[in-house]
Amino acid sequence: MLDKSPYEPLNAATLTRRLGGMPELTRRLGPAAHWQVREVGDGNLNLVFIVESPKGAAVAKQALPYARCVGESWPMSLERAFFEYHALVRLGARDPGRLPEVYAFDQSQALIVMEYLAPHVILRKSLVEGVVLPELGGHLGRYLARSLFRGSDFAMDTAHRKADLALFAGNGELCGISEDLIFTDPFRASPRNRVTAGLEGDAAAARADRDLKVAAAALKRRFATSAETLLHGDFHTGSVMVTDRDSRVIDPEFAFYGPMGFDIGSLLGNLMMAFFAQSGYRADHAACIAYQDWILDVAETVWWVFAAEFARLWKSGRNGILGLRELFEDVGHEIGARSVLTDLMEEVWRDTLGFAGIEMHRRILGLAHILEFEAIANEGLRAECERRALAMGRVLMLRARTLRGPREVSALARTMAERPL
Amino acid sequence: MLDKSPYEPLNAATLTRRLGGMPELTRRLGPAAHWQVREVGDGNLNLVFIVESPKGAAVAKQALPYARCVGESWPMSLERAFFEYHALVRLGARDPGRLPEVYAFDQSQALIVMEYLAPHVILRKSLVEGVVLPELGGHLGRYLARSLFRGSDFAMDTAHRKADLALFAGNGELCGISEDLIFTDPFRASPRNRVTAGLEGDAAAARADRDLKVAAAALKRRFATSAETLLHGDFHTGSVMVTDRDSRVIDPEFAFYGPMGFDIGSLLGNLMMAFFAQSGYRADHAACIAYQDWILDVAETVWWVFAAEFARLWKSGRNGILGLRELFEDVGHEIGARSVLTDLMEEVWRDTLGFAGIEMHRRILGLAHILEFEAIANEGLRAECERRALAMGRVLMLRARTLRGPREVSALARTMAERPL
Q1: Nearby residues of B124 by Cβ (< 8 Å), 6 or more positions away
Q2: Number of domains into which chain B is organized
Q3: Is residue A322 in a domain?
Q4: Which tens digits make up the pLDDT trace of B256-312?
Q5: Alpha helices, DSSP H, located in A49-171
Q6: What is the ipTM of this complex?
Q7: Which residues of chain A have a CB within 8 Å of the CB of B320?
Q8: Residues A217 and A137 in one domain
């Protein structure tokens, strides 16, 4: 925290004045007289500036006291910058190099200054453009295993774990937004919802679908009560920035203690939607199939790398509340520990599929839509792609127990896309 | 909070000086010159005084900075009085009249002054003496439904719920004790454990029982990660005081956000142990059977009254994060809400049986034993009763899915007691 001056939304000039007095930034970027500062559009909730100088560059992200996408009518606490800062530091330490480095945090201005990622682009854009990223699945699978394991009771002791739970319980406002927008709105008539023209009947069908709503209620309960680990909390393809060889995780302002499957499922659901969107812009059938196959390969790789890395950490790093080596390995009962891990992975897998399915509903029927579908210019075609995604999301929410692994999920996606298996 | 004087363990004289200056007490009890103050033994962690005057009476409970039962070698934070105070207030509001009324809280002395319950006795004592309490099951079942429902996301909004979660996350020290003493120690060699002579082989068998330890690990994970509601956290037959017509809940210093089944299971497990202990002191076979039948009837009543009262609150008081009337009742889908409740009750029931089973293990194989068994003078007979209880506890931990309701649990108990069904 730098000072106690009152919060004000910054512009290029006031930001330069403020950051120019911070030694941790002038050391990296040189004197502010040589900086170039520009505001760049972010999504919904923040101002984002890029600061460049002959010596280097940084990003400055300032929380706004309202949700920008809805206008000033939806006030939001500035405290979320505090939670994003703490989440960046923790998640960054759990998988070093995978999140932007934090240079400075100015709590009075709800302002985080951090590493400028270049030439990275948002993964959503890359998925629309059809770019193949050979290491994406491995990077994200490993990130998920390391962040989810190392923030959990398997790795953390009681004192640190409960203190962190208390700290992030303060992020209730953003949890409340997720609770409403993800788990409730898509399944009821809400003025915040919007759907592509032609999907009104599908939206009405979801609102009338009792089994689907019972599944949504169960998932909302998992989300609200299952404090398994510190989650990113908004881990979709818009929260990942990529180059050919690098993948970085950004924007953990929705961080909270929740179920492991929520982060994995958010990513998986977004990859599935990217899969269904492809026929909206790739007229060349063979090229479309090839890219769709790559997306499914990424989804499968995410899960398998997650599971393998989690198992590795399980063996070597189980030093927390739920470690329980004293019941198993220490007395020659390794097989018991393996059995606990197997049961855990089955539960995480079921959660993952359910949360993937609900993400696919809320991005099509709710408030916040995604670039992958929005980029389909032809509205009829977009509605068709979204309808297939909804059908798949419903199966993921209702039949999680029958899908035994990521290959079966890929097969389901191909079926729903009416592609020959 | 009254003042900032340094903490000191109080005695009758210093307590009188301190409380005599508090108007909220002199109003109830008259001037301190006419008080009679005596220290009475409590269990393990606290000093307890009874203050009596011609006008009335009160109990003063002061936390000690160590666990008394183990001596000063086990230091414990005084903050637990803070959590007990907050839990007394919340649980008392959720089921009015069921907890002692709080008169004053002196944080600097870790001191709670509250209603003196007389002529109440601890339920454990009453179960040893064979006293029938016609309303016990109804009282405790209703208390469980009201406290567990009203502290949950079904009843609480996001802001209050997350703030309370954060507050009670501070009670990590006592959660840590539970995590070790209940879920780990009974299943490993620990210098804190002790067993009745003759049970050494049973203890070794539990330590070698892989399935049992995998079940213990799963229950420990539920305990640590499933933040469903504000629990009492130590809800056994020593935390209930009774008369013929009244039942009161005391000592919620282990309060934290955890799974509903933990409080219910702790009580159920202790009732089952009281059942198995009866043949240790009731030589008259018919009298023993009759009292055992009454104990099983209490256990069944607790569950059925809990379930009925919970369903009533579910219909009328579902105004919290997980209320979701907007998906169900508000659009004519009552049956969907019933389905959510059914799924929830099945989960709570499975948790209840598992936690009951683990309670039965930790009270026989771990550090803290119970009066119901300790009161059996003949050690061989005590070991026999405890062995039957362990066998039942194992079934509860491993076969929760096969026991469809409390009558089947009673039948199992009778089988384990080798009584004709």
Answers
A1: B237, B238, B274, B370, B371, B372
A2: 2
A3: yes
A4: 999 999 999 999 999 999 999 999 999 999 999 999 999 999 999 999 999 999 999
A5: 80-94, 123-129, 136-150, 158-169
A6: 0.93
A7: none
A8: yes
